[in-house]
Structures are given as C-alpha cells and as structure tokens.
Design goal:
37% of the residues lie in helices and 22% in strands. It is of the alpha/beta class and 426 residues long. The chain has 2 domains: 253 residues, LarA, N-terminal domain (Rossmann fold); 167 residues, LarA, C-terminal domain (2-enoyl-CoA Hydratase, Chain A, domain 1, Alpha-Beta Complex), CATH 3.90.226. The chain starts with a strand and ends with a helix.
Length: 426
C-alpha cells in the first residue's frame, strides 16, 4: 500500500492526539492482526516520541502486541528505570533484549562485488543481512518498526532499513556497514538520504526482508520558536516512500547551515541518555562540519563514565584512541583485534577531528589520564559547567564573558555544518 499516512512540514506541530489518530488510521487499513511485535529505539532516542507511539500501539492491539524489542544495535540493554522514562507504564515483561553478538540470524548476503562497487573499489567483502531471530521465528503477522529520521553519521539519515539491519543486526553486519561508511567519508554521508551505506541496507530489505510483514512508523522532530522539541512530521507505510518523505523533511528541519563557521562549539550531553563516548561522540559527529579550522569543541558530559558500550569495544577504544583515519586504517591492517571489530574502527575514525580542531571532553566519570589516553583534551566538568551553564545558554550563538560560542543542548537532534563545507561535500 506504500505510504498509508503522512503529515508534516517545517512549521507543523503534531499533537499527541494527532499522532494517535494517524497511527490508528494506518493500522485500521491493515486489517486484523493476531500477533504483533514493536521495534522501537532505545533511550538514546528518548525524544523521538517512539515511546509514546509504542504505547498507542499497545492500546490498539492490547495483548496481541506480544513483544517489544528495542533496536539496541551495539548499545547496552535498557534499565528498568530507562524503560519507565521512555515507555511509561507499559508492562516491562513485554520487553526483549537484543544481543548483537548472539541473537541474529543471517537471511542472505550482498556479494563482495556489490560492496566493492559501492565503496569505489576500497572494500570487497560480502555483507551479511542479519536480524534478530525473534523477527523470523516469532510467528508475527505484523512487525512495527518505529523511530526517528534525523541526520546520522553512518547511514546519512537514521531509521528505515537501519532500524532492523543495524538495530537488530549482528556483529558482522554492523561491523561491515559501519566500516563502509567510515572509508567512504562521514562528511559525504551526514544528512544525505542517498549514500553507499543506505544503498547497502536497502539492498538487504528489498532482497531478504520482503517476506516479513513490516510497517514503518517514522517521526521527524524539530525545535519550535520557543526552543521546545515538537513533532514536525509522521509518516507511516509499508515501503521506502515513507522514509523518503521523512528524510526530505528532516533535511529541512534538522540541518542548520552556519555562516561563518563558529570557532567554539559547546555541546551538552544529557546524563540520562549518554553514559559512554560511543554514544556521546554524537557531539563530534554532528558538529565536525560546523567548526572552523583551528577551533574547539567542548563536550559537557556529566553522565559519561566509560568509552565503549561493552567491555571489548571499551578495550579497543582505550587501546587505539581517536587518532584519525590514516592511523586507524593502518591499525586495522596490522591488528587482528581491530580488524575483527570494524564498527569500533569506524567509530574511532568518526570520533576524531582529523587534527582540524580541538576536542575537549569534560566527563563526569573518567579521569584526565583516561581522556588524554584516547587522544582527547581533558576539561574539568565542574569548572566548564560553571562557565558554560546549560541552564543559562540559549540554543545557537551566545556570548560568555566576551567569548562567542555556539551552544547545542542535544547533538542527537540535528546536524550543524558550515554552509560551504556541507554543500561542497555533497
């Protein structure tokens, strides 16, 4: 049926009632369903409104919604407190945990020649199309993939095929898709709905997920004139059209082009969402195209107390550090542990400034030695929070004791770039 329900514009503010009405109308067009699964994001997309939409899904289907599998990818499982914060009073017994190292099944693969073509000859490995086995073996007659479309460092725009093939994918699939994006270049991907990684993920959906009864429910979130996050769009459908509509709107809503590029950017990481640099480096990804050469990014990270989301990834980040593309690629060639964890290698590339600007991390739970050991500069959190108080700063340009800074309260909500740099990268 293609696009089943859609509404949105840069000035739209969809209310909760409108979200419910849109979802219910789309579900009504599907006809009767007996066993339903929901695949929403985790706490790192707290503001996506996916928690609310999942509650409406439960209201509509009742006990026929039997399983909720947050699309964790490589992230740690949600705590009971995080589930309550994001999903409210939904029964915790409905929630399943995706284990990216053990749970996925392989449905097929994109051949190495296809990956070679996508990468411009840089890579030639096959790409396994993987999802959590629950989606294949659970007996569902409806799988509802819920999430937010927003600029993303790996897939250009988040969600759609990424939500299943990365969010419920396995180690090989995540490693190889992420590494493709890293070698292709983050600046060439960020904010672009069409890119090699997206083509690879869509290949998996089109060739191997057609037999799964998937409904895509996609939001676009932006800030209104009062600075409050609101729903700018909701698009629901059974094919790629809903993603295309959402991505087009996200480009208009979530990408802020700056002239001239700021010399200093200050980004705040909400401790409820960001506890590792693996997640917190969205502050780097989403601002790296904005910061002037020789400038500085200050990351206020009160909740960050580790580097990786699991022990092995944490160890690799500590061992190799955020040292730039050339050194990371050389380390991949020489070291089996990094070669076996290409998503970690991709993360190290993405999290580096490539020496173009300074990254000062101000963590709540990591020492100076730990931060400097991964090639970041260290900032004292208390002193920096006093100087750059998030409660007193407005989104965008501010002047603090005569110093001009650009403040971002949540880097996950958009992409900031110097106009010339963004346009030339495309």
């Amino acid at each position: 049926m293609g696009l089943m329900w859609g509404a949105g514009s840069p000035s739209t503010e969809l209310t909760s009632e409108r979200l419910r009405e849109g979802l219910y109308e789309a579900l009504g067009r599907l006809g009767e369903r007996r066993r339903v699964a929901a695949i929403p994001p985790d706490i790192t997309r707290l503001h996506s409104r996916a928690g609310e939409l999942t509650r409406y899904l439960r209201e509509y289907y009742g006990e026929r919604l039997t399983d909720i599998l947050p699309a964790l990818g490589t992230h740690v499982a949600m705590t009971p407190e995080e589930i309550r914060e994001m999903y409210g009073d939904l029964d915790p017994g409905l929630f399943r945990v995706h284990d990216w190292r053990r749970d996925p099944v392989t449905l097929g693969e994109a051949p190495g020649e296809y990956v070679k073509d996508l990468s411009g000859g840089l890579l030639d490995y096959a790409y396994p199309v993987q999802v959590n086995r629950l989606l294949v073996e659970g007996g569902f007659d409806l799988i509802v993939s819920i999430g937010q479309v927003v600029p993303h460092e790996v897939s250009g725009m988040a969600n759609y095929s990424k939500n299943l093939l990365v969010g419920t994918g396995g180690a090989d699939a995540i490693n190889r898709s992420h590494f493709l994006g890293a070698v292709y270049g983050i600046e060439r991907i960020l904010g672009r709905a069409e890119n090699p990684v997206r083509k690879l993920l869509d290949y998996g959906v089109e060739n191997f997920l057609r037999n799964l009864p998937i409904l895509w429910v996609l939001t676009v979130i932006g800030r209104n004139e009062a600075g409050r996050l609101v729903v700018r769009g909701l698009f629901i459908g059974e094919d790629r059209e809903c993603f295309e509509r959402a991505a087009e709107l996200s480009l208009r809503v979530n990408v802020e082009l700056l002239e001239p590029p700021p010399a200093k950017v200050v980004a705040y990481l909400d401790p409820a969402e960001y506890k590792s640099t693996w997640l917190g480096n969205k502050a780097v990804y989403r601002t790296r195209m904005a910061i002037a050469d020789g400038g500085e990014l200050v990351v206020l990270a009160p909740g960050v107390n580790r580097f990786g989301e699991d022990e092995e990834i944490d160890r690799l980040i500590r061992k190799y550090g955020y040292v730039g593309t050339e050194r990371v690629l050389a380390a991949v060639e020489k070291n089996a542990d990094l070669e076996a964890n290409l998503s970690a290698a991709a993360h190290l590339i993405h999290g580096s400034s490539e020496g173009r600007f300074r990254i000062t991390y101000c963590p709540g739970g990591l020492t100076r030695e730990e931060i400097e050991g991964v090639n970041f500069a260290y900032g004292d959190l208390a002193a920096m929070m006093k100087r750059y108080d998030p409660a007193r700063l407005a989104e965008g340009f501010n002047r603090v004791d005569g110093e001009e800074i650009f403040f971002i309260s949540n880097p996950a909500t958009g992409l900031w770039a110097a106009r010339e740099r963004f346009e030339s990268a495309g």
